[in-house]
Amino acid sequence: MNEDFLKSNAYVDVYELSRTKDTISGRVLLSDMPRLQDLILQSNKALQFTICGIVGKEGWPGATVTLSGDVPLVCNRCNQPMSFEMNREVVFRFAKSESEANQIPIEEDDDIEIVVGSTKMNLLEWLEEEALLSLPLVPMHLEQCIEPLHIRLGEDEENEKKNPFAQLKEMKNLRKAD
Ligand SMILES: [Zn+2]
């Protein structure tokens, strides 16, 4: 695959991918994933992806998918933007049908996602689904949050009356923090 971003009409035969143990890799724009758009900040960034066809232990068709990149979110604690580093790696097992998928026993110790495969699987939708599952339930800065701006300025109101330069100093400090 070339350096172009993944198109919404890119399909793969997952059974063929597994059989040939092929690899598909490339980049997908965050702005090309409509359902993800609702949960993240606007961005022109892209995620890197790699999809490798594999054959599972008992001969089942599968693939490993890696998805990585920075996703801009809003911190639920301070309401400021934050960058979430996505780094997902999943093993998929393709079932032939919904009923076959339901019959596959789920073993707790192996982390395999069972999906109904397709000879015409839409790559963008598949990766978008994975990206959605990778997002934190409650996004929050890992370390300390940035104090919300209005609180900081509000606390300085008293000082500002005594010292007209206090706020100016505060603004300078804010810029430095940027
Ligand atoms: Zn925060």
Short description:
This protein is an alpha+beta fold and 178 residues long. The protein has helices spanning 14-20, 34-37, 98-103, 123-134, 149-155, 157-162, 165-177, and strands at 11-12, 23-29, 46-55, 61-74, 81-95, 112-116, 121-122. It contains seven helices and seven strands.
Could you spell the SSE succession in H and E letters?
A: EHEHEEEHEEHHHH
What's the number of structural domains? 2
Question: What structural category arises from helix and sheet content?
Answer: alpha+beta
Biggest β-sheet strands, sense, barrel = 5 strands, mixed
Order of strands across the main sheet: 2-3-4-5-6
Overall residue-averaged pLDDT value: 85
Small molecules in complex: zinc ion
Radius of gyration: 23 Å
Helix content: 25-40%
Count the DSSP helices.
7
Residue share in β-strands:
25-35%
Count of beta strands: 7
Distance between the termini: 38 Å
Unreliable sequence segments: none
**Could you say which overall geometry the principal axes of the C-alpha atoms support?**
globular
